[in-house]
Specification:
The protein is an alpha/beta fold. The chain has helices at residues 25-33, 85-96, 108-115, 121-132, 136-146, 149-173, 181-202, 207-213, 227-235, 278-293, 310-315, 354-368, 380-399, 405-423, 429-436; strands at residues 2-6, 13-21, 44-49, 56-65, 76-83, 101-103, 215-220, 253-259, 262-268, 296-302, 320-325, 343-345. It has 3 domains: 2-104, 2-Layer Sandwich (Gyrase A, domain 2), CATH 3.30.1360.120; 123-204 and 376-436, Four Helix Bundle (Hemerythrin (Met), subunit A) (Up-down Bundle), CATH 1.20.120.430; 211-368, Rossmann fold (3-Layer(aba) Sandwich), CATH 3.40.50. The strands form 2 sheets. The chain has a 6-stranded mixed β-sheet with strand order 3-4-5-2-1-6. It has a 6-stranded mixed β-sheet with strand order 8-9-7-10-11-12, with helices on both faces. Mean pLDDT is 83; it is low at 240-250.
């Protein structure tokens, strides 16, 4: 089946790119242009007509990529036309009239590239991440994984496990033969090296996932402390309703921000207080739940009311900044006890010390995003497979001490399989749908 789709963004644009891939690609180009195929990989200006009529759709550029030297590994073409909805619709309708041609599903071009051996699974995922990247650090991470260092490392570890497995299976096939001591020592050394490396990769403070999904910041505190005002100020727009009525915010309000190139998901939560209102009590429960999930807590309090409840005091841990708001109303100095917390005194109304607060947040972000390793886990799928690989390696190390080689070999096979599933070295049809459905249509 030949697939086609708009690969550039939807909406009016100067140029739109329609991509076609499959056996009927050459036929589609000939029918649309009433001409022979252009030279491979040479941009060629052609008149593009409705199929079976002489009516002109547009004049545009044709790029012809005969397989397997193409993105998908199949015959493929890209048609560049003017980016109006009418032109794109007319071109799609014309291609749809060709037998065995249909509109592509989300991510199907990249799925074909993976299935035809043009890219591995990690690179396919990094392409999706690059397309959806909104900040510089997200772009850098996607490029780093596209360059293949993570895939190379996982393949290297997998090859080491396969070598160990070959020695173990040799012992199973020839039980009467004793393995030389140097091979036994090599099995022990190699399995331990792989185990230590995987443990190091897993112990990454989830930096890769933080970069990909966004750093979670929760704004917490009592009612009327200025939490919603702070969210609006950081967002430069009215995200949350601000009112002097206590308990206005009852649900969690989220917004995505780019703070100095770092992706952030910032949440305004319901004011924490004793309440008899059932809806407000649910909102407070949500606030405390969001506090547990947050990478950084901004605990906002009123400068004129610094009486801390046990709940508020428990929030002020190493991943929290105490924000004393409404400093314009403060008379005298604050309680010396407050100074032992990581704190800052601000006034949202007077725009006082807001830049210092943002700098504090930035420094916290930088510390969380620091990594010296080229191997980054960017998805929960990777983490689960690495953990399962580690579990099977631990089982293997226990079994080989009692020379239970049959069961030990099975643990090694499973450990190898889980490493392979990260880069797509095994049959992973069951996970392909969930991965490529995250792509836009046309990619």
């Amino acid at each position: 089946m030949t697939i086609y789709a708009l690969s550039s963004g939807p909406g009016i644009s100067g140029v739109a790119v329609i991509r076609i891939s499959g056996k009927e690609t050459s036929k589609a180009i000939k029918l649309l242009t009433t001409n022979e195929l252009p030279k491979p990989r040479v941009a060629t200006l052609r008149k593009i007509n409705k199929i079976n009529t002489s009516e002109l759709i547009d004049e545009g550029i044709i790029l012809w990529f005969p397989g397997p030297e193409s993105y998908t590994g199949e015959d493929m073409a890209e048609i560049q036309v003017h980016g109006s909805k009418a032109v794109i619709d007319a071109l799609h309708q014309s291609i749809s009239k060709i037998e065995n041609c249909r509109l592509a599903e989300p991510g199907e071009f990249t799925k074909l590239a993976f299935q035809n051996g043009k890219i591995n699974l990690l690179k396919a995922e990094s392409i999706a991440d690059l397309i959806s990247s909104e900040t510089e650090i997200q772009r850098q991470q996607a490029i780093k994984i596209m360059n293949g260092k993570s895939a190379d490392q996982f393949n290297f570890l997998r090859d080491k496990l396969l070598k160990i497995l070959s020695h173990v299976e040799a012992k199973i096939d020839f039980p009467d033969e004793d393995l030389p001591n140097d091979i036994l020592n090599e099995i022990k050394k190699s399995s331990e090296e792989v185990k230590i490396k995987i443990e190091k990769i897993i112990d990454d403070q989830k930096v890769g996932e933080r970069i990909r999904e966004g750093f979670k910041i929760a704004i917490l505190g009592p009612t009327n402390a200025g939490k919603s005002s702070l969210l609006n100020h950081l967002s430069n727009r009215d995200v949350a309703i601000v009112s002097e009525i206590a308990g206005t915010t009852r649900d969690v309000i989220e917004t995505h921000l780019n703070i100095d190139g770092y992706p952030v998901i910032i949440s305004d939560t319901a004011g924490i207080r004793d309440s008899k209102n059932e809806i407000e009590k649910k909102g407070i429960k949500l606030s405390l739940s969001r506090a547990e999930e947050a990478d950084l807590k901004l605990v906002v309090v009123d400068a004129k009311n610094l009486d801390f409840t046990d709940v508020l005091r428990d929030l002020l841990d190493e991943n929290a900044i105490l924000i004393i708001n409404k400093s314009d109303l403060l008379e005298g100095d604050i309680n010396p006890e407050i100074k032992k917390f990581n704190h800052i005194i601000i006034s949202i109304k007077e725009n006082l010390n807001i830049d210092e607060l943002i700098l504090k947040i930035k420094n916290n972000l930088k510390n969380k995003f620091i990594t010296s390793d080229d191997i980054l886990i960017t998805r929960e799928r990777h983490r689960q497979h690495l953990q399962q690989c580690l579990d099977h390696l631990n089982n293997f190390n226990k079994k080989k001490e009692v020379e239970d080689f049959d069961k030990a070999a099975e643990d090694l096979r499973l450990a190898t399989r889980h490493l392979g599933m990260i880069v797509g070295k095994v049959d992973v049809e069951e996970i392909l749908g969930s991965i490529f459905n995250d792509f836009c249509i046309g990619k």
